Amino acid sequence: MPLLEGKGVTKYFGGLAAVLNVDFHIEQGEVVGLIGPNGAGKTTLFNLISGALTPQSGTIRFRGENITGLKPHVICRKGIARTFQLVRVFPNMSVLENVLMGVLFGKSDGHGMGQALEEAEKWVDFVGLSPVKGLPARSLTLANQKRLEVARALATGPKLLLLDELMAGLNPTEVAQTMELVNRIREQGITVFMVEHVMKAIMGICNRIIVLHHGEKIAEGTPQEIATSRTVIEVYLGE
User: Fold this and answer.
1) What span, in angstroms and rounded, lies between the C-alpha atoms of 50 and 41?
2) Digit-coded pLDDT (tens) for 13-29
């Protein structure tokens, strides 16, 4: 049974199909990439999975359970966390307080504050932000704000992490560091589904890639298969 599975997932905005009849599956332990031109429906699909939007038709199942149309906080507590295309940190809270919010939001088992702080410290350290844990989030570089958002998502205790353009706006060194972070997340037993335009990253760390175009799935396969697909080259990669 796949960890996450979508069948016939469709979302319209007015008369425009943002996602149209898309089937997908994510297996436990994979890193799966989601690529396509701007406006292809990638973030909309993430919004449907995470509960920010409800599909007009189709079903989304997580660990065998139908989660279609559930509220975002319910889906989060079932084990799906996400980051956002535009970074959304709590700017006036410290790095540690941001991650503590993730611990407290994601857990329904009554963490004591001491235990929650310990958990938050663990994820701050995991993403390499311990030296700046007392600083307000607004003072961080873009790369570190993105790391903070990852730490806050990880602090909710996910089985599946949705990363929406985590590497956008980063320089080559930061991209390499972020690729290494994604690999370490996988080593924690967390499955990753990532939207990304940085093809070096997608090709370097994904087991499988799904390609959307005008809301429809036009290809799926290994990085090598996608890189040599005539259809994908024509609509997205270029010669």
Assistant:
1) 14
2) 988 999 999 999 999 99
What confidence tens digit (pLDDT) does each residue in 134-158 have?
999 999 999 999 999 999 999 999 9
Instruction: Give CA–CA dist 132/20, Å, rounded.
Output: 43
Residues contacting 228, CB < 8 A, separation 6+: none
Higher pLDDT, 21 or 197: 21
Q: 3-class secondary structure for the chain? A: CCCEEEEEEEEEECCEEEEEEEEEEECCCCEEEEECCCCCCHHHHHHHHHCCCCCCEEEEEECCEECCCCCHHHHHHHCEEECCCCCCCCCCCEHHHHHHHHHHHHCCCCCCHHHHHHHHHHHHHHCCCHHHCCCEHHHCCHHHHHHHHHHHHHCCCCCEEEEECCCCCCCHHHHHHHHHHHHHHHHCCCEEEEECCCHHHHHHHCCEEEEEECCEEEEEECHHHHHCCHHHHHHHHCC
Tokens of 128: 């390499």
234 phi and psi, to 5 degrees?
-70, -40
